[in-house]
Amino acid sequence: PLLPPPPGGPADAHFDARVDPYRLRPSDRRADPLLLLLHPERGPTLRARILHLLGLSLLRRGLASEHGARDALESCVDVAEKALDDAEEFAAAERRACPSHGEAEALLTDIAANAKWEMGRLERLEALTTRWEHDARGRYGVRDLEEALEIAPRSASFMEEYVRYLAGGKKRWFEVANRCERWAAENAAVEGVFARDRGGTATREEDGAFLTEGDPFPGVPPLEDLTEDFFRKKDDANGVPFYLRTLSDVGAKDAAFRLPKQIVPYYLRALRLEERYGAAIRALNALLEFDAHFEKEQEYMKYFVDRTLLLREKDKLERTIKFKEEGDGLFRDGYFERAAGMYGECLVIDQEPESAATAATRFGDVHGTQPFAKPAEAGGRLHAVLHSNRAACFSSLGRYDDAIAECTHALDIHNMYMKAMLRRARCYLKVGEEEKAKADFRKWITFANGAMSLPFPPVGQGPACFFDMPANVSREELGKVKKEMEDVGAISRSA
Description:
Blueprint: H1 33-37, H2 43-60, H3 69-87, H4 92-97, H5 101-133, H6 141-151, H7 156-168, H8 173-188, H9 204-207, H10 249-256, H11 264-273, H12 277-294, H13 298-301, H14 307-332, H15 336-347, H16 356-363, H17 380-396, H18 400-413, H19 418-430, H20 434-453, H21 475-494
Helix pairs in contact: 2-3, 2-5, 3-5, 5-6, 6-7, 8-10, 8-11, 10-12, 11-12, 11-14, 12-14, 14-15, 15-17, 17-18, 17-19, 18-19, 19-20, 20-21
């Protein structure tokens, strides 16, 4: 709809930029036409600002030309430039006498320049999208997605593709969860914006409740713990940078309701694979309860995850917790082979819908008599830990070659897994591979020394997992491992 003319303005002034963006004709001028034309908070200045915000909002959501971003930005430039042209029709003395002309002219000039810059970004986004869609070999995909997300950080389709890249090719489940939680925190910043004043008595038409139609997450439970600034602070109380922070269990539940539905399954899986079981349980139970409450209200359900997917993930979560806890109990009781088998059962949960027999063929004997032939494909902290635990089982059984194989699988998933690296070094010594043992000891010591001065890796770098890191090594432990390394060297020299 067209904006109404500003108070005191001519009734037939045009506000539709596609026709004639607020151009005052000489015959319509009254006592203060210049003030009307160059007011910083109304008239063409206000319309140009609205059009710029509209175009910018559409662009940030990835809704380019076909969804109106280009039209809005082009109209913004037209409105601003025509208002500036109209102002030139007045004499310089008249413009100087107008108290607001300088501020309004500066605003209009800036708005037009910003809109033109955003139009350049829009063209870049369209070029990236075209190249990405036609790049069958994936040569440009990752770089293009990162640049596209910089231009359109609220695009659900770009978010989904980037999460799929992190989860599928890189197995970076920690980063999947972190990215999802950062997006959810940004959505928390507009919590309640789309809801009408429920305390009033105005009708839907009177109070502007039409905004609820634009709510991307209608009817969700209110926020309990998630805050918009959780990831914005430079460092938290413990000095942890934003890209290594995790939400509380309650915060994760809040986040699950404030993500596009196509991303939620990735987030839930990331919570499980990063062993954030409390967060995963809270989020899944809340989503299932919400689904049951609104199952007959289709206007809500189109925004949220299919119940079948939620139940499938809940089943995997429950079996993961059960198998891992049983494996831990068997290990503590000294039943090492049975513990290895239980950890193996846990590892193949993410290979479904393959049968157990197929999984055993591809990954080795599920029941623990042989090491896995390759690391678990899903990755994540859970699978790195399971491989390391199986290595501990085999080492306790004196099967050091098998323990080495499982440590290697753990390190393939998490290349800074300090416990797995140290365990492999010691197993190499047991089988007489002293050079390989020394190589692992040297790497372990190098990582630990480096973390003393740089405890956190730079953003976008570092391993796929962030647990049992070099920064977790104490000076006392570092000294013991250095002594162990020296003893290995002394034995080698003596031999």
